[in-house]
Specification:
The protein has 539 residues and is an alpha/beta fold. It folds into 2 domains: 67-296 and 418-473, Alpha-Beta Barrel (TIM Barrel); 300-394, no CATH class. The protein is 32% helix and 19% strand. The protein contains 19 helices and 24 strands. Strands 3, 4, 5, 6, 7, 20, 21, 22 and 23 form a 9-stranded mixed β-sheet that branches. The protein is globular.
Length: 539
């Protein structure tokens, strides 16, 4: 039984003697933290250990809020594998899902299966493990009792599917108003924001006016507008970055640019901010985010032109195998893929369907050469043979000069107060991108080794994303806040995941408490599922 304190409260756990980095950016201090049930009740020096049911010796450790990963694609994986160990080993207590316009709530029952199958190259095919839901609130309810806390954006693709399915249509006033009511309901049910992925479909069929209409509602609820920008291929009059700025200017919505960093020797990091200078000067709130790697990952189906992706899973498969459409499909794909990979076509295959495939881990160029195919022919064949369950990860084959330049740029961006870190976790597939297993440990190690103050690093990973997503009661260590608490062997925090072996656990996290319960102790997962679904505005 917990010990009753003089003030009538209880002390279930006392974390004693650690270096407390409270998430505010203020200087660290040594002290103790008292936990009662799921709340921090007291922080101070020399708290009475005799009044605690359990004392945790934190001497020699750094005590921080649990980290908040503001960008993941983990929702279906969490519903199947509740523990979510890749996050726990990095000290992550809360994840945000539904990013890049990809998500599955709200959902019409008749579209549920097709939606999962079409996006299985990122999420995997978990149809047989899931219970259908209709509303966004019903979806959140299923996330209660996970290994981590889970907050969720409502995704653009889900909104589109509710109104016009998977079809390639430009919305008029009627459709925009219907969609506004859908997104209004999701915000009421707890969505923390609205995300778009304008290189994915059906979201990519939208025009700027549609996005303005939707963001008007998001702004009403103080939600965050998260942007995976459109391909710069002339589909809309505005260039992609300026499109996002224009939407924010016309609606006043708070803006978050996803995986937003430099990618070439020629690109100066200062130019990243040019499209947003005017709206920031006018008072618009703009955030930026990246993960600490030089190459990305994604959905191979996105290499297929939009006209070939409309409709159901069966309709997409029919177009991919159509002899009549073959020539047009190949021509359009040859144009489209360069926006993803560049001229060298260097990316590796991730197969979420067959972990034993002979193609797993090879580059598309290698597979093309082995099979005497063009790049686009390889893509079509892999999608067909694997029922769309194909993803990709980039290859870090840059010159040493470019690597140094890109990592120097990432350091400069991290030191900008508008930037935070989101892993962009895609956990499906044996050879997935290592960012889901290493991003947070990696950024801590990189910035620690550059002598960035620990309080600045921790603020970027805790209170800043909590403020962005309006996660009440999270992100700061103080009395009255939720007991999401991480204990670090700070000097030894390090990522171990590689592109060759991406599922290696990070090191340096000794313990992690989520809602006052131990999710990780002595560096090992306890098996306790302490996480909750976090709804906008709820503590």
């Amino acid at each position: 039984m917990p010990v009753i304190r003089k003030d009538g409260g209880t002390m279930d756990i006392l974390i004693k003697g650690g270096l407390i980095v409270d998430g505010t950016g203020e200087k660290p201090f040594y002290g103790d933290i008292a936990i009662d049930r799921d709340m921090i009740t007291e922080i101070g020096e020399n708290l009475d250990a005799s009044k605690a049911r359990k004392v945790v010796d934190a001497r020699g450790l750094t005590v921080t809020p649990g980290f908040i990963d503001g960008h993941t694609h983990s929702e279906l994986n969490i519903l199947k594998n509740r523990q979510h160990p890749n996050a726990l080993y990095q000290g992550i207590s809360t994840v945000v899902t539904g990013q890049c316009g990809l998500g599955f709530a709200p959902m019409k029952p008749e579209l549920f299966e097709d939606s999962i199958k079409i996006n299985s190259g990122i999420f995997g095919d978990y149809r047989h493990y899931l219970k259908d839901w209709k509303t966004f609130g019903e979806f959140l309810n299923q996330l209660d009792g996970s290994g981590v806390n889970v907050a969720a954006n409502v995704s653009h693709n889900a909104i589109r599917q509710m109104v016009t399915g998977f079809e390639n249509v430009v919305w008029g006033e009627k459709e925009r108003r219907e969609a506004q009511e859908v997104i209004r309901q999701t915000m009421k049910e707890g969505a923390v924001g609205f995300s778009v992925g304008l290189s994915y479909y059906p979201g990519g069929y939208s025009d700027t006016e549609e996005l303005i209409a939707l963001c008007q509602v998001v702004q009403e609820y103080d939600g965050l507008f998260c942007v995976h920008q459109r391909l710069d291929d002339g589909q809309v009059p505005l260039r992609p970055r300026y499109e996002a700025a224009e939407i924010a200017r016309k609606t006043g919505v708070r803006l978050n640019m996803l995986h937003y960093r430099t990618g070439s020797m020629e690109e100066d990091y200062h130019t990243l901010f040019e499209p947003f200078k005017d709206i920031e000067a006018a008072g618009n709130k703009v955030y930026y985010e990246y993960y600490p790697y030089m190459v990305g990952a994604g959905l191979v189906l996105a290499l297929v032109p939009g006209w070939a992706q409309q409709g159901s899973y069966a309709a997409i498969m029919e177009r991919l195998t159509s002899k009549e459409l073959r020539s047009k499909l190949l021509k359009d794909m040859d144009e489209r893929h360069k926006y993803f990979f560049g001229p060298d076509q260097t990316a590796t295959v991730i197969l979420t369907k067959d972990p034993y495939s002979r193609d797993l881990g090879k580059t598309f160029a290698q597979i093309s050469e082995e099979n005497h195919e063009t790049f686009s022919e390889t893509i079509i064949r892999l999608l067909e043979e694997n029922e769309l369950q194909v993803g990709f990860a980039g290859v870090e084959n840059q010159s040493e000069a470019l690597k140094k330049k890109l990592y120097d740029d990432q350091y400069k961006l991290f030191m900008d107060d508008r930037y935070t870190i989101g892993s962009d976790t895609i956990p499906a597939g044996m050879l997935c991108h290592p960012r889901g297993f290493g991003s947070f440990a990696r950024i801590i190690a990189h910035m620690r080794d550059r002598n960035v103050p620990v309080e600045y690093i921790v603020k970027k990973l805790t209170s800043m994303p909590a403020e962005m997503y309006r996660l009440e009661g999270r992100g700061v260590l103080k009395a009255g806040m939720k007991a999401d608490i991480c204990l670090l062997d700070y000097a030894n925090v390090k990522d171990q995941a590689t592109f060759e072996d991406p599922r290696q656990r990070a090191t340096g996290v000794e313990a992690l408490y989520i809602n006052g319960l131990p999710a990780l102790e002595h560096g090992n997962i306890t098996g306790i599922l302490a996480g909750h679904a976090l709804r906008r505005g709820e503590k």
